[in-house]
Amino acid sequence: LSPDEDGICSGRYFSESGLVGLLEQAAELFSTGGLYETVNEVYKIVIPILEAHRDFRKLTLTHSKLQKAFDSIINKGQKRMFGTYFRVGFYGSKFGDLDEQEFVYKEPAITKLPEISHRLEGFYGQCFGEDAVEVIKDSAPVDKRKLDPNKAYIQITFVEPYFDEYEMKDRVTYFEKNFNICRFMYTTPFTMDGRPRGELSEQYKRNTILTTMHAFPYIKTRINVIQREEFILTPIEVAIEDMRKKTQELTAATNQEPPDAKMLQMVLQGSVGATVNQGPLEVAQVFLAEIPADPKLYRNHNKLRLCFKEFIMR
Fold it and tell me: Is the pTM of this model over 0.85?
């Protein structure tokens, strides 16, 4: 609907029944798209209108649709499919306006990295010629000076929705963690001498947080990145993060309803198996064998000890 058109306000949509019709259509589409929680939000606007008109037939229908939506939420639980997100960066003068632009792409839930790589490579291959397009395989920062000026480069990285700790208090359900999201994170492991991976004591990590112009889900399936922040984790901070993750996995596996012995066994083997190199035992030997000489390191040292305390308790 565009307000500049003549007679738009006398059109059939610009009436109470027109509005209700559009909202009902929206609710149907949300339901088809598996966003059942939003169906409830849409009907919150519709129901008072139907109540004012004493339209009990339509109210019956609406409430039965709401019941269906709530049933779907309960029955599908964690099995619901939302999106998978990728950061795509374009480099090279061939792209014109797109050069050095970054986007977050939202793909169907089970899209793997090779699929989107193949698709974008094919699409831009048709635009510029197959030989002119190259996909950058790692997620390290791109140095423009090392790139061939006659080629178009695409860098694709898997990203996950990112929330601050305070946000997690409000985002409890699986749906809330996948709806209305505009911040994403990816991590790049590195060592000071340039290799991506090394010993525990030299393994650093770069966490990159991207903010998009709009929140997903959106009308478009790709949105511009408008801000990026980078945090570097030192080896002991990387170890703290890993230990916290292992503790969470253990907690989830022990509290699972109904209990799942296979899952628990896998998590346990990954946590305490003697064959696991860089497992908790090695982390303890590398970082906790002796108290650090530098008082600045006490805080992380204690944090890691507390992580182990919690881990052993689990």
Answer: no
Residue 16 β-bridge partners: none
Q: Do 24 and 30 touch, CB atoms closer than 8 A?
A: no
278: confidence class by pLDDT, cuts 50, 70, 90: low
- Pull the structure tokens for residue 134: 């190259």
In CATH, what number does 236-313 get? 1.20.58.740
DSSP secondary structure string, 210-248?
EEEEEEES-SSSEEEEEEEEEEEE-HHHHHHHHHHHHHH
Beta strands in the chain (DSSP E): 83-91, 102-108, 133-136, 152-161, 181-190, 204-216, 222-233
Q: How far apart are CA 87 and CA 156, in angstroms?
A: 6
| Angle (nearest 5°) at CA 17 between 11 and 18 | 40
The residues facing 91 across adjacent strands are 153
What is the spatial distance between Cα 254 and Cα 107, in angstroms, rounded to a whole number?
Answer: 32
Domain boundaries, the chain: 16-76, 84-233, 236-313
Measured from the Cβ of residue 304, the count of other Cβ atoms closer than 10 Å reads: 20
pLDDT at 6 over 80: no
Secondary structure tally for the chain: helices H, strands E: 9, 7
Among 306, 26, 38, 4, which residue's Cα sits nearest to residue 176?
Answer: 38
